[in-house]
Amino acid sequence: MGKYILALDEGTTSARAILFDRNGCIVDMVQREFPQIYPHPGWVEQDPMEIYASQYGVMMELIAKRSLTAADIHAIGITNQRETAIIWDKATGIPVYNAIVWQCRRTAPMCEEIKAEGLTDEIRRKTGLLIDAYFSATKIAWILDNVEGVRERAERGELCFGTVDTWLLWRLTDGAVHATDVSNASRTMLYDINRCDWDDELLARFGIPRSMMPKVEMSSHIYGYHTLNGTPIPISGIAGDQQAALFGQRCTHPGESKNTYGTGCFLLMHTGNTPRFSDNGLLTTMAATLDGQAPQYALEGSVFVGGAVIQWLRDALGLIRDAEDSEYFASKVSDTGGAYLVPAFTGLGAPHWDMYARGTLVGMTRATGRNQIVRAALESIAYQTNDILALMHEETGIPITTLNVDGGASANNLLMQMQADFSELTVRRPAVRESTALGAAYLAGLSTGFWTNEDLEKTAETDRIFTPELSDDARNAALSGWRRALRAVKAWSSFDETEEG
Ligand code: ADP
Q: Is the C-beta atom of 188 inside 6 A of ligand 1?
């Protein structure tokens, strides 16, 4: 039995190969960035061959660096940037167009048309998603409509569609396997998460032939084999990055939640084997599911500007030199002196939904300086996360008692303490912060008998626990100040020029 599980993590900007041992500890890792392509403002593409080459490259580099043989690698797990759409030729493996990346806004007008057709409720009910250009459906339709000859080839059954996991799997199995997992399928806006099948009506609406669609399997499943020096290694776990992180954080029961504090924040709450639908803009999505298990679901909410507000302090204001300095300056004062920063640079998401909102700093006095502003910025990350946590609780009735954290900004102890204080819950930071890759490794190791579920319970080591320390009065005052700041944002965004003067 091989000693290691190899996790392949194809993110939005870089590919990583990470080797995990039986204890779920990182043995070694190789990472490489790959190029982004911006053909027009708001458009984002990647070269599918670069995606594969970067992923294959880091995998081979890791194998060479550790002098591994195929016998050392028990199984391979894949996790990936979600929603990104790739179409390629079944016979040659050549992509018909670049990958259209999840961030790409080119299909926003198409989304407006679909909304105007009144499909919002149907799409939410079937797919759990809001109609948005992020998801794969309109990206696939765009390639079929705009790249010459592609629609005819698709209709002749010559083409395959895949999200990044599917593309990597197809390549790594030499074209033998065209499949995806439920968590990735649930981000396409074409997958009925209630019936666990592609939805023929939605496929027809977007003009996408069913023959292009990958087979959908559970996340922990032996999909196929990658042959290394003549020896087959099972590819036995796949999940989209956020769901992989949820699984890597061992959140597998209703109410168990994780927040990833990256550029933005991604908060997922497991809701067991029942999909819970939100009226306030949270997404319903499939959580990583094991072979033989009933389909698992999660609610997802995101904060557009999370760690990015710290980058803004650094790059636009020059208040700090490194992101980690934020903790030092914010700790020099015990509060912000009544100042609140709402980093609504690109509008506000759930539960506020205001695309016209803009960044706002309120409550300043002559005493407001760098320390207070840096502190207000950190607080804003915790407040925004708290708004989503509160919404999840309100909409499901499920209390969240522990929040598992990861991502770059989760290293900030002060921020984690703020989260525990504002949300009145326990914040748990795991020893292995690479939850995404760890989740993919767990999925791959479970389906091949490398680990049992009981083994995984033992591997989850904690780095630090943060418990609430703020009095009720202090918390209520803080949250009420934040709500007041949001009202100030609203006053700005909804200002009617005709009333001026
Ligand atoms: P992504 O995967 O979105 O690129 P990462 O998980 O690498 O993000 O986290 C990077 C983000 O976290 C950046 O926005 C950075 O400003 C923020 N960040 C990193 N370290 C800290 C810290 N110690 N305190 C606050 N923010 C931090």
A: no
